[in-house]
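Box 4.2: Ligand-aware structure prediction
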Amino acid sequence: MTQRDPRYDILFESVRIGPVTSRNRFYQTPHAIGMGPHQHDEMVAFRRTRAEGGWGVVCAEETMIHPTSGHDPLPVQRLWSDSDIARMAPMAAAVHEFGALAGVELTHTGSSGAAWEQRGYPLSSTAGSPRLQFNPITTRAMDKRDIAHFRRWYVDAAVRARKADFDIVYVYCAHDLSLLQDFLTSRTNKRTDDYGGSFANRLRLLREVLSDVKDAVGDRCAVALRLAVEERRWQSSLNSREDGRRVVEELADVPDLWDVNVSDWQWDSGSSRFFEEGHQEPFVDFVKKVTSRPVVGVGRFTSPDAMVSQIRRGILDFIGAARPSIADPFLPRKIDEGRHDEIRECIGCNVCAAEVMNYTRIRCTQNPSAGEEHRMRWHPERVPAAVNADRSVLVIGGGPAGLEAALTLGKRGYRVSLVDAGREWGGRLARERRLPRLSAWGRVVDHRVGLLQCMANVEMYLDSRLEADDVVDMAADHVIVATGGTWRRDGTGRSHDEPLPGADAVQVFSPDDLMDGRRLGGRVVVYDDDHYYMACALAEKLAREGCHVTLVTTATAPAPWSFNTLESGHVVRALFEVGVEIVVDTVIDAIGASRVQVHERLTGKPRELAADAVVLVTCQSADDALYRALLARQEAGEPRSLDRTGDCIAPAFIAQAVRDGHRVALDYEAPFADWSATLTGSR
Ligand code: ADP
Ligand code: SF4
């Protein structure tokens, strides 16, 4: 094993947090994983893997203190009754098994949750419209008795957390998702009693809860305060920055740990399209100057040098991570073992957030095992060994699916040949990474190619388009086709069952044309019936190249799926900044010379838009001709064994292709039922 680079020693210093001590400075901050009380085995397996990977602290996600709190239907954890202790305790035990501290983020969601499942009334400092929800309800302003109850719920939940053997108990006041933040913020708190009005009054409840929790469990558990030190909003919020600093000044040494970030989630978990690594530093850098307690902060840190810099410059004591720990649970161990080149760096795509926003189990573009640790028994680092290591596997296509398949088969020990028709690795990503703001996505390619190039049992060939005859001639024991997909040129998609009239005209282009280098000029209509990033990325590219761009979308807002990735607000601003005109809820009926005919979806009203060129971003189709040809050849005996993966089955987002590449590589000679036996060493 290689040695740790001494430059990174500082990251492995132990740090005291109140009554407990972390073995190092790697801190997996609380983050949602879309696993609720009914998936606790999955939740435990997810967190255990991070502890195994070397994180000093591993936290559970927001954990409700009372039935009036929740983000239904998002599955989250709870400690609202004694019966929840037995369910949460295995997580703390699993984390302890590997020497990490276990934290739990005790939460009351207040008016950010609808209390929908419990059929109650959302609690708030102030009666009014609840935020983050469209339900036809209003919040209930808490009276003094409610406040007393709330304080008791926090204490009861903290005591349960201690009984479940958690080491760090959180008081949560962040992301605009917390009743305590609702009381703290003048934007939401309109009370006139001693819990509202002045800063001291708005701070009162947070101060009381912190003190209550410390009194209740502070002898054995560290009490952390997670605070949004700044509310970043499109409309500026009065005093938020000043208030954030004053909270830290007022409560400086009250919590045992400050976990600081910016609010709300789209600003905290900023995607790489709009935020750099370490982007929160200007907002949190004052905290350590004010408190003597340790400080944890996040910023999509994947570079050990950036981490060391945060510590040495006195910005943070702990390197907080949600996404970097999702993408690479073994990040700390890789740095510790001098394998930092092997870190599976988060690409900042926020597909992990999208799964949570869709109320489902977390997934990750870079790490196919995320969320599959229990259900599929997938491990981020270990894969089942080859059953017959002398067997050869040919993988055709070096996009995300083919690269992941080849890497996993290589790790398993097979003799792998990876072949691609293109001049560089990456498939769709070889071109997409050159679109505006998408360069970090190229890490999906670079990580895998870097590892594959070091594997003695893997051979890689570019510039080699294979036909069925070539494949048969190569006589591999197993063939995996990963030939990807192509954007449709005829406009069919969500809104069009039949080809669009005029789609075959010379001035109509597909995303593939533009990514292949085709330059356009004049007035360009980019038509989005796909609803994720492609249309907006192309619109921005064209506008930067000098075109007058109109984005016509069939949705009611640009790139609506980007709402799930916390990007929709940023996407609209980016388009606005480069002068893209946005036309929503509109369908193209026909494309003619110098114009397109459209109608507004809501009213049916027709109109025409000027267009020298039209780019159709509607749907992709699978490039499965080679697979079908090989299937036909199989009847004659070759190839002996055949499978396919990724976009060549059905084009989807990149996370799907990576996951399927992993799946297809594990499927070979090891059907699902056998994997767990292999992983546990019984095979
Ligand atoms: P996925 O997302 O499923 O990995 P991509 O479209 O990103 O799919 O990648 C598919 C890759 O397959 C592309 O790089 C393409 O050049 C390659 N490819 C397609 N057909 C062939 C073929 N017949 N021979 C070799 N490579 C091919
Ligand atoms: Fe990072 Fe994307 Fe994985 Fe989330 S899904 S952890 S943003 S690579």
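In the box above, the bound molecule is iron/sulfur cluster. Residues 144-163 form the longest helix (20 residues).
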